[in-house]
Amino acid sequence: MTFRLRIALGSIAVGLLVLGLKFVAYWWTGSVALYSDALESVVNVASAVAAFVAVWFASKPADSNHPYGHDKAEYFAAVLVGVMIVLAALSIVREAWLAYVAPQPVIFSVEGLLINGAASLINGAWAFVLIRVGRAHRSLALVADGKHLVTDVVSSVGVLFGVVLVLLTGIQALDSLLAGIVALNILWSGWGLMKESVGGLMDEAVAPALQERIREMISTAGEGALEAHDLRTRSAGHVVFVDFHLVVPGTMTVETAHDICDRIEEAISRDVPGARTTIHVEPEHKAKHAGIVVV
């Protein structure tokens, strides 16, 4: 089992632990805001499962039906998680409205509040691990799962503050109002996640900073060539695809041109591990006198 898969599996275990703790906190207090917080943890578990399946499928090697690999599976998982986040938010809105129409007293329970706080600390620590590992391994599924947990932590802190406020002021409507605010925060998180995932499915170019680094590597490693143009980039999970046209002198041998291409590919792979570079070599009369100037 790869390191990424072990992290994804650990996320399921952490999600189940936090889910249990938050439902105990809700059971002891009867707070609809804590219920909404616990309900979001159900989505956390579902998203962790989706991330595990996506990372497992994306790690499969390329085959005859998928010659470019299975890396885009992580984007589908992230879209699925985004949809589940939105559904959870709508469910919380319903519970908040029902509690506002027929408010139920919140029971003061130090144990319940402490348990919910402990669950949030666990979520926060694991979110840090997921985002760090996900970015290091360029795994959108792990980063998405981590960002969702960050949203959960922010919501939980707000919920705890609100429940304490209800207990101090006696205003029961604050519990429902806070649950509604949590739902809006969750909706925003789900929308952002789906937007990012759809961008990956639509083959958006890599970040401008990475594009500039790739251009510099082509320029410095392509000694002997004349120029490079029509650079295109896209991401698929942890893989970055790069393709461009490389113009060389018309009298250059195929072997020399091939050596230049090898140098460029190696330079890009060193800076962007796992990058897959495709270079179309063209003779001098195909130059556009625009794009990347080779040093």
TrEMBL record:
Domain Cation efflux protein transmembrane: 11-202
Any Pfam family: Cation_efflux
Protein name as it appears in the record: Protein p34
Native species: Stappia taiwanensis
Keyword Transport included in the entry's annotation: yes
Subcellular location, principal: membrane
Membrane-spanning parts: 7-29, 41-59, 75-93, 113-133, 153-171, 177-194
Alphabetical list of Gene3D superfamilies matching this protein: Cation efflux protein transmembrane domain, Cation efflux protein, cytoplasmic domain
Gene Ontology MF: a single term: zinc efflux antiporter activity
Domain (Cation efflux protein cytoplasmic): residue spans on this chain: 210-284
Family (UniProt): Belongs to the cation diffusion facilitator (CDF) transporter (TC 2.A.4) family.
InterPro entries referenced in this protein's UniProt entry, alphabetically: Cation_efflux (IPR002524), Cation_efflux_CTD (IPR027470), Cation_efflux_CTD_sf (IPR036837), Cation_efflux_TM (IPR058533), Cation_efflux_TMD_sf (IPR027469), CDF_Transporter (IPR050291)
GO BP: intracellular zinc ion homeostasis
Its membrane topology: Multi-pass membrane protein
Gene Ontology, cellular component aspect: plasma membrane
Localisation per UniProt entry: Cell membrane
Tree of life domain: Bacteria
Keyword field: Cell membrane, Membrane, Transmembrane, Transmembrane helix, Transport
Keyword Signal: no
